Design the sequence.
C-alpha cells in the first residue's frame, strides 16, 4: 500500500574537484546550475523538474554518495514515516529546514546496506526551466550537452539488501518491480519503485556497505542516447558500457564516469509498473542478458567499480 512517498527528491554526491564535476554534470549531461551555498555545494536540476534542485554536488576527499532523499506528499506523512522508521529500529536524524538551500526539514535514516536516506516534503518550486506553465512550449531552448530531462534513480551496492528492501516496501510503501534471484531463490538485486517507473531505487548485494554504482538521468529518445555517446567520445570522457539495452527494465542506456570516478547513466524508455503488476524475476544464470541484453555477457568493470 502506498505510504505517501512520491519520488526521488535529490541526491548529494561527493566530487573531488567542483569545476571538473560541473563540466560533467552541467556542461556534458546538461543539468542546469540553480544555486550555490556557503559550504560550496552546487545545486542542479534537469530541465523538466518542478523543484528547485535534484542534484547536490559537494567537494570532498573521496567520491561517492552522501545520501538520497525522497519527497513525500506532506509534512504529516514525514512525521508518520519517521515514527515507523524509529519503531523498526532505524537510526533517525532530524535535519533542520535551510540546511540545504530552500529545502524544508528532512528526516535522515540508515539502512542495513550502509546507506543514508532522507524523507522531506517541502522545497522551493521553480518550475520547468525555460518553460512557461501557461501554454507551455515542448522544450526549452539553450540546453547544454545531453539535455538531461530529470534525475531518475540510483543503483546502490551493500550487504543485506533484503533488510533494506523490507524498510522500503513495508514502511515506505515501495513495490518490488523487478528482481534477480540466485539458485536458492534469494534476491541478489532488487529494483524498487514508489511511482509508475520501472524503478526509483535499486540495490545489488555486496559485502562492502554504502557503495554507489551509478546515478541515472533520463533522456527523451534513443537518438538522444546515441548523441550522448557521441558527446562522450568528443570530450574523451571515460566510458563504461553502451549504448545498449538492459534486459532488466528494458531501458536503452549508456554508462560513463565523472572525473571523480562516480559512474553516471543516461537512458531512455524502459518498462512501467503499477501496484497490481507482479514482480518480474530474472535468474542469476541469465545475469549477462539481464544487464546487457544484446551482448549477453558481463562487463567485469560494470559489476566491481564502485564509489
Sequence:
Amino acid at each position: 500500500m502506498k505510504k505517501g512517498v512520491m519520488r526521488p527528491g535529490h541526491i548529494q554526491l561527493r566530487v573531488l574537484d567542483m569545476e571538473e564535476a560541473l563540466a560533467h554534470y552541467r556542461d556534458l549531461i546538461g543539468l542546469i546550475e540553480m544555486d550555490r551555498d556557503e559550504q560550496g555545494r552546487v545545486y542542479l536540476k534537469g530541465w523538466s523538474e518542478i523543484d528547485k534542485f535534484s542534484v547536490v554536488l559537494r567537494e570532498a576527499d573521496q567520491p561517492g554518495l552522501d545520501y538520497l532523499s525522497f519527497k513525500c506528499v506532506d509534512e504529516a506523512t514525514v512525521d508518520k514515516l519517521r515514527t515507523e522508521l524509529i519503531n523498526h529500529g532505524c537510526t533517525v536524524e532530524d535535519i533542520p529546514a535551510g540546511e540545504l538551500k530552500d529545502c524544508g526539514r528532512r528526516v535522515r535514516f540508515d539502512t542495513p546496506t550502509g546507506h543514508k536516506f532522507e524523507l522531506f516534503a517541502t522545497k522551493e518550486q521553480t518550475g520547468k526551466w525555460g518553460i512557461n506553465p501557461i501554454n507551455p512550449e515542448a522544450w526549452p531552448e539553450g540546453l547544454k550537452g545531453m539535455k538531461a530531462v530529470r534525475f531518475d534513480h540510483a543503483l546502490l551496492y551493500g550487504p543485506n539488501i533484503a533488510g533494506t528492501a523490507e524498510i522500503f516496501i513495508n514502511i515506505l510503501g515501495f513495490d518490488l518491480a523487478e528482481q534477480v534471484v540466485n539458485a536458492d531463490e534469494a534476491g541478489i538485486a532488487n529494483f524498487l519503485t514508489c511511482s509508475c517507473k520501472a524503478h526509483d531505487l535499486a540495490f545489488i548485494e555486496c559485502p562492502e556497505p554504502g557503495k554507489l554504482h551509478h546515478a541515472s538521468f533520463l533522456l527523451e529518445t534513443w537518438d538522444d542516447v546515441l548523441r550522448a555517446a557521441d558527446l562522450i567520445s568528443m570530450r574523451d570522457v571515460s566510458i563504461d558500457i553502451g549504448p545498449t539495452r538492459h534486459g532488466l527494465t528494458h531501458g536503452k542506456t549508456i554508462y560513463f564516469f565523472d572525473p571523480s570516478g562516480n559512474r553516471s547513466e543516461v537512458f531512455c524508455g524502459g518498462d512501467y509498473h503499477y501496484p497490481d503488476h507482479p514482480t518480474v524475476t530474472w535468474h542469476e544464470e541469465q545475469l549477462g542478458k539481464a544487464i546487457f541484453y544484446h551482448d549477453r555477457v558481463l562487463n567485469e568493470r560494470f559489476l566491481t567499480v564502485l564509489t
Remarks:
- Helices lie at 18-28, 75-88, 161-171, 222-234, 287-291, 300-304.
- Residues 75-88 form the longest helix (14 residues).
